[in-house]
C-alpha cells in the first residue's frame, strides 16, 4: 500500500471491509488456558471418583490443585498479553465474563461447600454478582463492578444468617448491584439527553 | 466527484489504518504495518497526519527495552469515520 492513488467510492468501501476483516480474523490464542483447566478439572473429578472407592484421606484435598493451577494461569495470561500487538474489544468482554465466573466458582467450591444449610440466598447472590461484575468490568463502570463484588461479599455474609435475614442480604445486594448503579446511569442518561435537545 | 468526502480519510493508507483501529481497542505500529503492507516511513507519516487531525492518539512507550508505538482511535476519529462511511453510502446510493 505504497502508491497513493485516487480511490473510487467502491474501492474505499472495499478497503474498509478488507481491513476490518483482517483485524477480526486475527484472533490468536495459544489455547494453553483451555488446556490447563481442561486437564486440572478432569483430574480432580476422576481422583474424587476413584477416592469414593479408595477412601484415601489425602485425596480429599485434590481440589486444592485448582488453587495451585491459578499460578500457571496468571503466568499464561501475562505472557499472552505481553506478546500481543493489539488489544481487541472482545478481550475486555470475555475477561469480565471469565473473571466473574472464576470468582463465582471459587465461592461455590471453597466457601459455600462448608455451609450446606443456608446456601440458597448465597447462591442467588453469587449469580447476581456474575453479570453485574462482568458488565462493570467490560464497560469500565465502577459502580457495577463494586456492586458485583458487594453481591459476592453479601453471599458470604448470608451464609451466617438464617431466614428471613438472608432476605435482607439479597435486598442489599440488589440495591448495591443494580439500584444505585441504575440511579447513576439514569442521571448520566438524562444529562446527555438534555445536551442533545 | 469526491469533494464532499473527508480528505484526511480519503487516502488509501490513512483509511486502512483508521479501519483497523475502529475494529480494535488499540494496536501497535508493527501490527498496523503488517496489516496494511506499508513501509515504516510512509506509515509513520500517515499516522502523524491522523494524529494532527485529532483522529488517533499515539502513545510511545518501551516494551522489553524496545520502543513501542501504540495507536488508538479517538471519539473524534470514530465520528469522522462514521461520517465518511455515511457520505460514501449516500454517494453509492446504498440503503442500509
UniProtKB/TrEMBL annotation, chain A:
Transmembrane segments: 27-49, 61-78, 94-115, 165-185
Keywords, comma-separated and alphabetical: Membrane, Transmembrane, Transmembrane helix
Superkingdom, natural source: Bacteria
UniProt protein name: Uncharacterized protein
Organism: Puia dinghuensis
Phylogenetic lineage: Bacteria, Pseudomonadati, Bacteroidota, Chitinophagia, Chitinophagales
Automatic annotation (TrEMBL), chain B:
Source superkingdom: Bacteria
Domain Winged helix DNA-binding: 13-92
SUPFAM superfamilies: Winged helix' DNA-binding domain
A Pfam family reported for this protein in Swiss-Prot or TrEMBL: HTH_34
UniProt-listed Gene3D superfamilies: Winged helix-like DNA-binding domain superfamily/Winged helix DNA-binding domain
Name of the protein in its database record: Transcriptional regulator
Source species taxonomy: Bacteria, Pseudomonadati, Bacteroidota, Chitinophagia, Chitinophagales
Amino acid at each position: 500500500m505504497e502508491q497513493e492513488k485516487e480511490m473510487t467510492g467502491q474501492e474505499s468501501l472495499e478497503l474498509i471491509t478488507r481491513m476490518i476483516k483482517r483485524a477480526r480474523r486475527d484472533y490468536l490464542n495459544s489455547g494453553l488456558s483451555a488446556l490447563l483447566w481442561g486437564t486440572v478439572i478432569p483430574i480432580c473429578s476422576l481422583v474424587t471418583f476413584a477416592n469414593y472407592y479408595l477412601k484415601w484421606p489425602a485425596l480429599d484435598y485434590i481440589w486444592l490443585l485448582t488453587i495451585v493451577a491459578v499460578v500457571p494461569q496468571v503466568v499464561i495470561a501475562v505472557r499472552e498479553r505481553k506478546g500481543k500487538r493489539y488489544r481487541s474489544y472482545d478481550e475486555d468482554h470475555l475477561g469480565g465474563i471469565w473473571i466473574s465466573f472464576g470468582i463465582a466458582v471459587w465461592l461455590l467450591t471453597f466457601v459455600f461447600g462448608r455451609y450446606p444449610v443456608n446456601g440458597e440466598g448465597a447462591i442467588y447472590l453469587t449469580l447476581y454478582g456474575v453479570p453485574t461484575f462482568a458488565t462493570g468490568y467490560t464497560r469500565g463502570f465502577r459502580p457495577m463492578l463494586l456492586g458485583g463484588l458487594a453481591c459476592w461479599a453479601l453471599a458470604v455474609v448470608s451464609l451466617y444468617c438464617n431466614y428471613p435475614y438472608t432476605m435482607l442480604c439479597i435486598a442489599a445486594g440488589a440495591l448495591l448491584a443494580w439500584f444505585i448503579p441504575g440511579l447513576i446511569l439514569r442521571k448520566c442518561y438524562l444529562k446527555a439527553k438534555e445536551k442533545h435537545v | 466527484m469526491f469533494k464532499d468526502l473527508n480528505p484526511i480519510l480519503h487516502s488509501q493508507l490513512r483509511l486502512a489504518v483508521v479501519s483497523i483501529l475502529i475494529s480494535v481497542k488499540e494496536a501497535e505500529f508493527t501490527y498496523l504495518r503488517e496489516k496494511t503492507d506499508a513501509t515504516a516511513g510512509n506509515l509513520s507519516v500517515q499516522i502523524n497526519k491522523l494524529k494532527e487531525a485529532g483522529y488517533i492518539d499515539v502513545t510511545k512507550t518501551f516494551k522489553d527495552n524496545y520502543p513501542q508505538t501504540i495507536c488508538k482511535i479517538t471519539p473524534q476519529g470514530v465520528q469522522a469515520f462514521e461520517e465518511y462511511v455515511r457520505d460514501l453510502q449516500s454517494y453509492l446510493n446504498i440503503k442500509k
